[in-house]
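Fold Annotation — chain and its backbone
Next Lines — sequence and tokenised fold

***
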Amino acid sequence: MNKRLFAAAGLSVIAVLLASCGGAKDPAMVASERVAKSTEILNERKQKGALILARFIYPGLFGPMQCAGQIRLRKLVDGEPDKVAAPEDVWSGFKWLLPEQSKPADINGNLLNPVGNAKEYERVLHPIAPGTYVVTYASCQMSSPNGTMTLEAGGDHGGLFSYISALEGASKITIGEGQIVDAGYFRVQGTKTHPVVVGQEASQAEREIMREVLPGAYSSITFKKFGD
């Protein structure tokens, strides 16, 4: 194989790799997927009566960081977390913008900091029954030079020393009948023994992405924060 043919073959391989990473999708297919996922979201709302989405943020030394994790919710009964009914475990998404980030010019080709597409949002919207809930446990995993580190808050984890109690701060959230709730950013501050929840609504940039990738479901989304 001469140099020219070798270079052409190399460029073809790169093009295939970029396409497989989502950098070169057919616009018609993307539009069709967005419509389909919007319809799925609206239908999934019927499973329990509502949907909820949350983004877990860890307050790092150099600013907030995305944290893949679990937020455990229990319904409030007479002012206390329901200790009988099974809890709702909401899993934070992986692809979304931090509060201070701007919407990228090309949301499909942003390989270094990928943002959510229709499929990702449909995946992380969790079916939930309407009602008022409190956070009783939260955990997330962070990558560090020493490996993966797990951060935990609260004791409602089902282990030997498990206990059920609402986390301090903005740990309450109310979900209305038929709502698709974007609960914004979930932060845990304070210490391990006294964690405090801080809530913040989804940024304008994040909303703009959701409006673009979920054209059929966006108007049905209610934007809230923990503490509401």
User: Anything to note?
Assistant: The first helix runs from residue 3 to 20.
